[in-house]
User: Fold this.
Amino acid sequence: VTVADVVSGAIAGNPRDVGRLLTLIENDPRAASEFRRQAPDPVGMVIGLTGPPGVGKSTTTAALIAALRERDVRVAVLAIDPSSPFSGGALLGDRIRMQHHATDEHVFIRSMAARGQLGGLAAAAPAVMDALLRCGFDAVLVETVGVGQSEMDIAGLADTTVVLLSPGAGDGVQAAKAGILEVGDVFVVNKADREGADATTRELRTMIDLGQWSGWVPPVVKTVAATGEGIEELLDVITAHTAWLRSTGQRTERRRTRIRAEVAALVTSRVNRALEAGEDEALLDDVSAGRCDAAAAADAVLRRIGGGGAPV
Ligand SMILES: Nc1nc2c(ncn2[C@@H]2O[C@H](COP(=O)(O)OP(=O)(O)O)[C@@H](O)[C@H]2O)c(=O)[nH]1
Ligand SMILES: [Mg+2]
Assistant:
């Protein structure tokens, strides 16, 4: 299967062809560029959902799919799972939870390992997001699992980042400590059927008010994702953020961030491959023995691979 075989089907949103396209992109980054040359410019938006395990990201994603479909929006979901074997159960749960959308041809669901060979966010993730937009999905929901660097990286790749928290004393403070307040465009206090939701919402609003914002001040929405309560409001807020991005040119900026990440992943991957090929062992010994500093070694490696390096 080549890009040429799937391009028209993928642009039409045929799930089978979209799936094949993403596999091609994951296996060979050049496929992303080949598709980009033939596909229309993206129109839709990437919406990232992040927050601690168990907060309700998958439930919210499923509720958002339902609400978006009611608005006749074509949806793709990218579930970023850690490669850890312990996540098997959670992933299965997510799948089952979203299953009633599985037969809707306007909903495409794909999961992807969080960790690429580089250790960071899967190298293909930004290219996959861009490809899904070019396949004509109006909304690409990206759900991450857990709170760590890869989630922060993903937050940086979305057009709108939704940070979910649940009621609990000091959750807002914890979020601030984890640096989560800076990445959120929209905050959700999910499980609002539980005690303390109002307090957590107030706490979050106070902390947000203390921040320096220019233009967009992140709203806080209370939801009960399990019943769909608050999901319409959440969607309205996301749509308002989308409109704000469009009107301020921020959207172009965020799109550029994804392209930058795509290119950066290729650069990193080339450097790692070159180092793993073993040609620089003597240089590494010199660094280890203090005969050469690491920065000079890095210069030497970059010079050696120059414009070439192993094609990825
Ligand atoms: N009480 C309550 N439980 C919820 C709500 N939303 C999700 N849950 C439950 O919380 C658990 C974790 O939800 P899940 O969506 O898998 O969380 P994720 O790990 O963030 O994706 C599941 O058992 C859900 O049914 C809610 O609004 N209220
Ligand atoms: Mg989940």
The pocket of guanosine-5'-diphosphate (ligand 1) is lined by residues 53-59, 93, 190-191, 193-194, 224-226 (CB under 6 Å). Strands lie at 45-50, 75-81, 107-113, 139-144, 160-165, 186-189, 220-222.
